[in-house]
Specification:
The complex is a heterotrimer of chains A (436), B (267) and C (317).
Chain A: H1 15-27, E1 51-58, H2 61-64, H3 66-75, E2 79-86, H4 91-101, E3 107-111, H5 112-119, H6 139-142, E4 146-147, E5 150-151, E6 154-160, E7 162-166, H7 167-173, H8 181-193, E8 200-201, H9 208-220, H10 238-252, H11 266-272, E9 277-281, H12 285-293, H13 297-301, E10 302-305, E11 317-325, H14 333-343, H15 346-356, E12 359-360, H16 375-385, E13 387-388, H17 396-412, H18 417-431
Helix pairs in contact in A: 7-8, 9-10, 9-17, 11-12, 17-18
Chain B: H1 2-25, H2 30-35, H3 48-55, H4 59-90, H5 99-108, H6 115-124, H7 131-135, H8 142-153, H9 157-165, H10 170-178, H11 183-199, H12 202-207, H13 216-223, E1 225-226, E2 229-230, H14 232-265
Antiparallel strand pairs in B: 1-2
Chain C: H1 2-7, H2 30-62, H3 83-90, H4 92-125, H5 131-143, H6 146-156, H7 162-169, H8 181-209, H9 213-221, H10 226-237, H11 239-254, H12 258-264, H13 275-285, H14 288-313
Helix pairs in contact in C: 2-14, 3-14, 4-8, 4-11, 5-8, 6-12, 8-11, 8-12, 11-14, 13-14
Classes of the chains: A alpha/beta (436), B mainly alpha (267), C mainly alpha (317).
C-alpha cells in the first residue's frame, strides 16, 4: 500500500504508481538488508544549534514545553523551535504515514511502551557517537530504545511505580507497610477486616498494562516473560505462573476487585476508602489526590513504599518515561540532537520536573537539592534502580494485550494460571518477536 | 396524542441525556471530575473551560480552519455532485455505466486501508500541511454523487426534452432547467458533506504538520490531553462548541433535508 | 470517514426510471457525450487520486509480506500471493471478530430501525407541535463529534460514573458496563443504536411523506385501530424504505469501528472486537499485509452483502 516516494526519489504519480505496484508485485523480493541504517558515525559538535527544529509532541507535555524552548534559545539564539501537539492515541498512525511519505519532523519523543514499535519502522537515526553517556541514565529507560545493541533514543524523563497506600487506614488496622508478598497479603487482610471493601487496586484493564504488572511480579519472583537475549517468549515459565497465581489470588480472595478501578475510579475509590492501596501504582496518582480532595490531602492520608519483594527476595518495579528520537529523513538533525542533549542535562531535568512534575531520567539530577526530602520522590528513586523494562520487542503491545486477555480468563473463569499462560505462550510464539 | 408526546419525550430524554451531561460538565473543574465522577451538576457555573479553550488553546484558529474546510467542501459537493449526478442520470453516452459502480465501491472501501497512500499522494502533490489537502478527498464525496444521481432521476425527462426541442444548449439545460429543480437534493448533499467534513478526524490530523492547519476535532483532541488522563472540562466545552454550528444548520435546513432524502432515495 | 458518511445517509437502490418514449430522438448526441464526461471530471479525478490508486496499493500490499520495517521502502518486499489471506482467515482472533461483527449487525440493525421507525411514526402524524424540535433532538447523536461522543460514553458508563451513580441512588445494581463481556457488548450496541437511530428516523420520515394522508383518514373512518393501521397500511407502504434502511444499516454495522474501538478497544476478552477494529489493531502492530488482507476481506464481505441486498431491492417488473 505505501509507496516510498521521498524527495530524493520522486516517482510519477497516477498511472505510474499503479504500474509500479504491478511491477513491484511481480518482480519484488527482499534484497539485502536495507532497514535500520544505524548511525553513520555522525557526531554533534558543541556549537550553538541553528535553524528551525520541527518538534512533534504527544500527551499533555506539549502545552508546557515552550517554557523550555525559551531557555534553550537564550543559549542558542539562532534556533527556532516549531512545536506541533499531536493527540497521543493517534501518534503512531500519524508517524507511520509521515515516515512512509518522508515528511517527518526533526524531533519527537515517545513513551517507553511504544518505542519498540516505532523503531521497528527503521525510520530513526541512532544516537550520535559521544552525545550522551549511557551509564548516566537509568538502565530501564535507556534499554527500551536499544535495537540490536544500537541506541536510538535519549531518555528524557522517567517514572517508577510504587505501592501507594492510605497511611491513615493502615494505622487504624494496625499494620505496617508491607515489604514482601506475604506481608502484602496480611496487610490486605487486616484492612479488609477494617471494612475496606477491596484493599488493593490492581491494573485490571486486562491489556498490556495488566500483563506487565504480572510481568513485574514475575521479576520480583526471579522470573521473566522473555529470555534475556529477547529471542524467545518464556511466558509460561514456572516463576511467571507463580506470579500470576499470586496476583489472581488477591482478586479471588476478595482483596482486590476484578472490575476496577478503571478510568477515573482510581481516585474516588481510594479517597472513599473502598481501596486502601494502589499496587504498583504510577506516581502521578499522588497529585491527582490533591487535585480532587484539596491541597495537602495526600500528605495527610498517603504513604509511598517500594513494591514488596517476592519469595526470592527480588525487588522490581514497572518503569517508563519518554525519550527523544530523531527521524532519519529529518532535515535539521544537528539542532534536534542538540536540543535533546540539552534537555538531558541536570539543570533542565530539574527545571522540567518543576514545570511538569515529570521526574528526571538522568541519575545525577536526583542528587540535586530540589529532589530531596519528598517521600514520594525518595520511593520512586529507589524503585527506578530496580526498574524492569518491558519486553523490548516490537510485538510486545500485541503479545501484552493477548496475555492481558488470558489473565482475565483466570480471574473471571475457572482457568488455571498454568493453562492460561500455556495458551499465552502458544499464541505469543505464533506472533513472534517481530524482529528479523 | 398525549401518549405520543409521552413516548416521544421519554425516548428523546434518553437520547439527549449525554448532552445534558456534556453541557453541565463543560462548566466543571478537573477536580470535580476526579473527586466525584458520578455528579450531574457542576458545583458552580464557571466559564473557565470555554475561556481557556479559546485564549490558551487556540481554538479560534481551529474553528476557522474547520469553517473554511466545510464551506469549500459543501460548495464542491453541491456543484460537482450535481454535475456528476446529472451526467449519470440524464445524459446518454458511452462508458457512463462503468462510473456508477465506481461510486458504490468508493463508498465501502475501509478507510484504514487508504489513509497512508492518500497521504503519500498529497505529499507528492506538494500539498502537505495545507487546508487544500484536507479538503480534496472530500471535495466530491461518492455519497453526494449517489444522492444527486438518484435525485436527478426524479426530474422529469419531458421537461428537458421540451427545452431541447426549443434549442437549449447542454449548459442551459443543466443550469436553467435541472439545477433549479434540485433544491432539496442539494440541501441533503450540503448537510451530509458538512457533517463529513466538519467531523472528520484522522485525515486532517495526518495531513496537518503544524497546529495552524488543525481543524476543530483535531484541536479538541489535542486541547483535552492532560497528564496521564483527559482534561474533561475542556473536552466537553469543545464538544459543545463543535456541535453548535452543525445543529444550527440542521435546524434551518431539516425540512429540505428530509424532502431531499425522500426524493433521492425513496421514489 | 466512510463510516460516518455511509451512516449519516441515504444511499439506496432507488429504482432508476428509464424514460420511455421520446428518448430515442437524440440518443447519445456528441454534445451530450462531451458534457457528460466533462461533468464527471471532478468526481473521476478525485476518485482516481484518492480512492482508486490507494485501493490498488492496499490490495497490492495484501499480497506481500509487508511489515512495519518496510514502510520506508515498500517495494522491497516479497510477493507471497494469497498467503496473508490464508493466515488471516485461519487466525482465531480474526474469526472471532468476524462473528462479533455479525452479532453487532444482528443486534444493532433491528434495534436502530425499530427506534427510528417509532420516532418517525410519532413525529409524522402523532403530534402537532414541536415537531422540528424533536426531530432535531433525535438527530443530535448522529451529528455529534465522535471524539467527544466516545469520551462521553466512556465516562458515563465507567464504574463510578453518572450512570452507575444514578442507578445506585435508585437502589439498582451497578454493572461493570465496559469491563464485563456481556455488558460491554450491551454498551457498544447501545451506542451504535444511539448514533444511528436518527438516520433511520430521517429515512422513515422521508418514506412516510410518500404515504398519502387520505389513506389514513379513510382507514380511521373505517374504524381501524392504531395497531391495525400500522400493520396493514403503513408498513406495507413503507416496504421500499424499510428494505433500503436495512441495506444501509447492515453495511454501516458491518463496518462498525468507532464504538467498540473508542469505548472498549475491542475488549474485554475480545468480545467487542469487530473486523474493522481487528484491521486497525493489526495496522498498529505493524502487520501491514495482514491488516490490508483483512481490509480486502471486509470490503468483499460488505460488497457481497450490499450486492445481494441491492438485488433484493430491485423492483420486480
Amino acid at each position: 500500500m505505501r509507496s516510498h516516494l521521498t524527495k530524493r526519489n520522486r516517482v510519477l504519480l497516477g498511472a505510474a504508481l499503479v504500474t509500479a505496484t504491478a511491477v513491484a508485485l511481480s518482480g519484488c523480493g527482499r534484497s539485502a538488508d536495507s532497514g535500520n541504517a544505524a548511525g553513520e558515525g555522525t557526531t554533534v559538535d558543541d556549537k550553538p544549534a541553528t535553524g528551525t527544529v520541527e518538534l512533534w509532541t504527544q500527551g499533555a507535555d506539549g502545552a508546557k514545553l515552550p517554557e523550555m524552548f525559551a531557555e534553550f534559545q537564550k543559549e542558542n539564539p539562532d534556533v527556532e523551535i516549531n512545536m506541533t501537539e499531536v493527540p497521543a492515541e493517534e501518534f503512531s498512525s500519524k508517524m507511520t504515514a509521515a515516515i512512509t511519505a518522508g515528511t517527518v519532523p526533526d524531533l519527537i519523543y515517545a513513551f517507553s511502551e511504544n518505542q519498540a514499535g516505532l523503531l521497528a519502522t527503521g525510520g530513526f537515526d541512532a544516537v550520535p557517537e559521544g552525545l550522551v553517556e549511557e551509564d548516566e541514565f537509568f538502565d530501564a529507560l535507556w534499554s527500551t530504545s536499544v535495537v540490536d545493541d544500537v541506541a536510538y533514543g535519549i531518555p528524557w524523563y522517567s517514572y517508577a511505580n510504587v505501592l501507594i497506600y492510605r497511611s491513615d487506614l493502615a494505622a487504624q488496622a494496625g499494620v505496617e507497610a508491607p515489604t514482601d508478598w506475604d506481608e502484602l497479603r496480611t496487610f490486605g487482610e487486616a484492612l479488609k477486616g477494617q471494612g475496606v471493601e477491596f484493599p488493593f487496586a490492581l491494573a485490571v484493564n486486562y491489556d498490556q498494562y495488566t500483563a506487565w504488572q504480572v510481568g513485574v511480579m514475575a521479576a520480583q519472583n526471579g522470573g521473566s516473560m522473555i529470555s534475556d537475549d529477547l529471542s524467545e517468549w518464556t511466558i509460561n515459565d514456572p516463576k511467571v505462573v507463580e506470579a500470576l497465581e499470586y496476583w489472581s489470588s488477591l482478586v479471588k480472595d476478595g482483596l482486590a476487585s476484578p472490575d476496577g478501578p478503571q478510568f477515573l475510579d482510581t481516585v474516588p475509590w481510594s479517597s472513599q476508602g473502598k481501596n486502601a492501596a494502589i499496587v504498583d501504582g504510577g506516581p502521578w496518582f499522588a497529585s491527582w489526590f490533591d487535585d480532587a480532595n484539596g491541597e495537602g490531602w495526600g500528605a495527610e492520608h498517603l504513604a509511598f513504599v517500594p513494591n514488596p519483594v517476592g519469595p526470592t527476595g527480588d525487588a522490581a518495579s514497572t518503569t517508563g518515561g519518554g525519550s527523544w528520537f530523531v527521524p532519519s529523513d529529518a532535515e535539521n538533525k544537528d539542532a534536534a540532537w542538540k536540543f535533546a542533549r540539552w534537555m538531558s542535562q541536570p539543570e533542565q531535568q530539574i527545571q522540567w520536573y518543576e514545570i511538569f512534575k515529570n521526574m528526571p531520567a538522568l541519575k545525577a539530577a536526583w542528587d540535586e537539592p530540589e529532589m530531596q526530602g519528598d517521600p514520594l520522590l525518595d520511593t520512586v528513586r529507589e524503585s527506578l534502580e530496580v526498574g524492569v523494562p518491558r519486553p523490548n520487542v516490537p510485538t510486545w503491545s500485541q503479545v501484552g494485550d493477548m496475555i492481558g486477555q488470558q489473565i482475565e480468563t483466570v480471574v473471571r473463569g475457572d482457568v488455571s494460571a498454568q493453562d492460561a499462560l500455556d495458551e499465552a505462550q502458544k499464541q505469543a510464539e505464533a506472533i513472534g518477536m517481530g524482529t528479523k | 396524542m398525549a401518549l405520543n408526546y409521552t413516548a416521544l419525550v421519554v425516548i428523546i430524554v434518553f437520547m439527549l441525556l449525554p448532552f445534558v451531561w456534556v453541557f453541565f460538565g463543560s462548566f466543571k473543574t478537573q477536580a470535580e471530575f476526579m473527586s466525584n465522577p458520578g455528579a450531574w451538576l457542576p458545583e458552580a457555573f464557571q466559564f473557565d473551560n470555554y475561556v481557556r479553550l479559546f485564549a490558551d488553546r487556540g481554538f479560534g484558529t481551529y474553528l476557522m480552519n474547520s469553517i473554511i474546510v466545510s464551506v469549500v467542501a459543501i460548495a464542491g459537493n453541491v456543484m460537482f455532485s450535481a454535475m456528476a449526478g446529472y451526467a449519470l442520470a440524464k445524459l446518454r453516452f458511452r462508458g457512463r455505466r462503468i462510473v456508477f459502480p465506481l461510486v458504490i465501491v468508493s463508498m465501502i472501501v475501509p478507510y484504514v486501508a487508504l489513509f497512508v497512500p492518500q497521504f503519500v499522494i498529497v505529499v507528492q502533490l506538494g500539498l502537505v500541511d495545507t487546508l487544500t489537502a484536507i479538503i480534496l478527498p472530500m471535495l466530491v464525496l461518492p455519497l453526494s454523487v449517489f444522492i444527486m444521481r438518484q435525485f436527478a432521476y426524479s426530474v422529469p425527462f419531458e421537461l428537458m426534452e421540451a427545452a431541447r426541442l426549443d434549442g437549449a444548449g447542454e449548459a442551459r439545460l443543466f443550469f436553467r432547467i435541472f439545477l433549479p429543480l434540485t433544491g432539496p437534493g442539494l440541501a441533503t448533499v450540503g448537510i451530509l458533506s458538512f457533517l463529513t467534513s466538519w467531523n472528520n478526524f484522522l485525515w486532517p490530523l495526518v495531513v496537518a504538520q503544524s497546529q495552524k492547519t488543525y481543524t476543530a476535532p483535531v484541536g479538541l483532541a489535542v486541547a483535552s490531553q492532560a497528564s496521564n488522563t483527559i482534561s474533561f472540562g475542556l473536552l466537553l466545552a469543545g464538544a459543545v462548541v463543535v456541535l453548535l454550528p452543525i445543529l444550527i444548520l440542521f435546524l434551518f435546513l431539516q425540512k429540505y433535508f428530509i424532502q431531499g432524502v425522500a426524493t433521492a432515495g425513496l421514489k | 470517514m466512510t463510516t460516518t458518511a455511509t451512516r449519516a445517509v441515504v444511499t439506496s437502490g432507488a429504482p432508476s426510471r428509464r424514460p420511455r418514449g421520446g428518448r430515442k430522438a437524440h440518443e447519445g448526441s456528441r454534445a451530450e457525450a462531451i458534457t457528460g464526461w466533462l461533468f464527471l471530471v471532478p468526481f473521476l479525478v478525485i476518485f482516481v487520486v484518492f480512492t482508486a490508486i490507494p485501493t490498488v496499493l492496499a490490495v497490492g500490499s495484501s499480497l506481500t509480506d509487508m511489515g512495519a520495517r518496510d514502510i520506508r521502502d515498500p517495494f522491497n518486499v516479497n510477493f507471497v500471493g494469497f498467503d496473508s489471506f490464508a493466515a488471516v482467515i485461519a487466525n482465531p482472533s480474526f474469526q472471532s471478530s468476524f462473528l462479533n461483527t455479525i452479532m453487532f449487525v444482528v443486534l444493532c440493525v433491528p434495534l436502530s430501525m425499530a427506534l427510528g421507525l417509532a420516532l418517525a411514526l410519532i413525529l409524522n402524524n402523532g403530534i402537532r407541535r414541536l415537531r422540528a424540535f424533536f426531530r432535531a433532538a433525535a438527530y443530535v447523536p448522529v451529528i455529534t463529534n465522535i471524539v467527544a461522543a466516545a469520551v462521553i460514553w466512556q465516562y458515563a458508563f465507567s464504574i463510578s460514573g453518572p450512570v452507575n451513580t444514578t442507578l445506585g441512588n435508585l437502589g439498582l445494581p451497578q454493572p461493570n458496563w465496559l469491563g464485563e463481556p456481556g455488558w460491554a457488548i450491551t454498551t457498544v450496541v447501545g451506542m451504535g443504536v444511539w448514533r444511528t437511530a436518527g438516520t433511520c428516523m430521517i429515512l422513515f420520515l422521508a418514506g412516510l411523506q410518500a404515504v398519502p394522508e387520505e389513506i389514513y383518514e379513510a382507514a380511521s373512518t373505517d374504524g381501524a385501530g392504531w395497531v391495525r393501521r400500522l400493520w396493514s397500511i403503513t408498513l406495507p407502504l413503507l416496504r421500499p424504505t424499510t428494505l433500503l434502511v436495512t441495506v444501509l444499516m447492515t453495511v454501516s454495522f458491518l463496518n462498525i469501528f468507532e464504538e467498540p474501538y473508542l469505548l472498549t478497544k475491542g475488549g474485554p476478552l475480545g468480545s467487542t472486537r469487530s473486523i474493522a477494529v481487528w484491521v486497525y489493531e493489526q495496522f498498529g502492530f505493524g502487520n501491514i499485509s495482514a491488516s490490508m488482507a483483512g481490509s480486502v476481506l471486509l470490503l468483499l464481505l460488505v460488497g457481497i452483502v450490499a450486492i445481494v441486498q441491492f438485488r433484493m431491492l430491485r423492483p420486480k417488473h
